[in-house]
Amino acid sequence: MTRKLLIDSDTASDDAVAILMAHRYPDIKVLAVTIVSGNLRVVDGSRNARYTIELCDAQTPVYSGCERPLLREPAHAYWYHGSDGMGGMNYPEPKLRQAQGHAIDALIENIRAHANDVMLVTLGPLTNVAAALLRAPEIASMVSRCVVMGGAANVVGNVTPAAEYNIWCDPEAARIVFRSGMNLEMVGWEVGRGAAALTETDIARVYALDTPYAQFAMDCNVHALELAKNWQGDPGMTLHDPTAMAIALDPTLSKRSGKYRVDVETRGELTRGMTVVDERRIVGTQKFFTDEWAVREPNVLTHHELDAAKWKALLHQCLRKS
């Protein structure tokens, strides 16, 4: 059976690889890609998504969405992804035109049309999804799985010591989504680090596949690779959005996970955007918690680690020739 998928993205270099993977995976039908402000302005994210879809010889509609967070000022990451968001590769303008309509409407309409038979993967800030939930809260129960690339499960963040970028950009939106009752899975930024990072040998093996997909996936991430190694101290190319997509496509890649109560800090002076993960299940077991806290049940399946070998094999599968 074909699985139906919606992707919400702030399409820069690693998002593009995730979008490519979804279009190249055998049993996936991508219904739409919706673009949100995050890594890039919406206009640039739309262009990059459409170029990637065109590379896959697909016609998936791409809808532009929210151009700023719900309450915050935009905070883009061109410095990390390059002036075009694609490592400065300056790919040509795609022939695929942007779809008419707004991303919020596209999300609501597609989820309603495929109720209980559609998966949502988010690769950027959660502004579009939160706005859709505010307008149509009933869609929360209609999504079979919502896999969120975002957060940091009790580890240091990548934009502040406490927070991961996607959640930090729009913490109010993230809180709405995390409290919505949607069947959420969180793939924090730490999952793509360590053994999941592509080493120089791994990168050479991808290039050796000698396909346009492999060339594209590595080339557009070279700029991010240098920053990951020299600034963050990672052992190689960290592809956070593709690792989240890999778990969405094949849940058996997750080696360690647990369902916990997860909430988002919106007001902390030092902890804006922190994903507070009750991994030890303290809430409700300590007498000093209020009744409000005590009744909060686990709401997010949190992935801590993936099988690095299986993840890299899946990446290769998606980048080979048909």
**Count of spatially separate domains:** 1
Read across the widest sheet, the strand sequence of neighbours is 3-2-1-4-5-6-10-7
- Amino- and carboxy-terminal Cα gap: 19 Å
Shape: globular
β-strand number: 10
CA radius of gyration:
18 Å
Low-confidence stretches: none
Instruction: Specify the biggest β-sheet.
Output: 8 strands, mixed
Enumerate how many helices there are, as a single number. 13
The proportion of residues forming helix, as a percent range, comes to 25-40%
What is the CATH class name? Answer: Alpha Beta
What's the overall average pLDDT, rounded? 94
Kindly name the structural category. Answer: alpha/beta
Which sequence of SSEs, written as H and E, runs from N to C?
Answer: EHEHEHHEHEHHEHHHHEEEHEH
The CATH architecture comes to Alpha-Beta Complex
Strand proportion? 15-25%
CATH topology: Inosine-uridine Nucleoside N-ribohydrolase, Chain A
The CATH homologous superfamily is termed Ribonucleoside hydrolase-like
Outline the structure in words.
With 322 residues, this protein is α/β, with parallel strands linked by helices. The protein has one domain: Inosine-uridine Nucleoside N-ribohydrolase, Chain A (Alpha-Beta Complex), CATH 3.90.245. The chain is 35% helix and 16% strand. The chain contains 13 helices and 10 strands. It has helices spanning 13-24, 42-55, 78-81, 103-113, 127-135, 165-169, 171-178, 200-207, 212-219, 222-230, 240-249, 291-294, 308-319; strands spanning 3-9, 28-35, 62-64, 118-122, 145-149, 184-187, 254-260, 262-264, 275-277, 300-306. Strands 3-2-1-4-5-6-10-7 form an 8-stranded mixed beta sheet, sandwiched between helices. A two-stranded antiparallel sheet has the order 8-9. α1 (13-24) packs across α13 (308-319). It starts with a strand and ends with a helix. The model has no long low-confidence stretch (mean pLDDT 94).
